Amino acid sequence: MTTFSMYTASIPVFKQILGAQLALLEKAEAHVAEKKIDPQALLQYRLYPDMLNFTRQIQIACDFAKGAAARLGGQDVPSYDDNETSFAELKARITKTLHFIESVPRSAIEGSEGRAITTGSGEKTKHFMGSVYLFHYALPHFYFHATTAYDILRHNGIDIGKKDFIGNY
């Protein structure tokens, strides 16, 4: 009989996609250098005027990964300043996020499917049980922002494909 693992359903998934995002940033950085493009053209690019730019997509993907790891692990969510303005700074944010999520003990996350989780404040307060939070809130948001960041790079001519998004597993 196989048992369900909240840890396996969360941390390795975040690590895989964030690792792929690091590789995507490397390709984006090489692309702007080769084509002699101002990096801000990509960092500030958005798919539509009412959407967030590339930099914010990466920041928010990191926020959902660290937030989910912390909440599922019963820890305080670390606060990161949203002040990245370069590919190097975005890579550092992803690396910091990876270090944090790897620091949350597996034992703290296992069994968290029934943990009461609250996000937001005031009118934006949301209450979840751990499994609903992970599968219906944190992972969909994480994938949305990671995918949107990928789409921005692809739309701007960077030679990437599905394998680049998925990364190594």
UniProtKB/TrEMBL annotation:
It holds the Pfam family DUF1993. Gene3D superfamilies: dinb family like domain (1.20.120.450). This is DUF1993 family protein. It comes from Duganella qianjiadongensis.
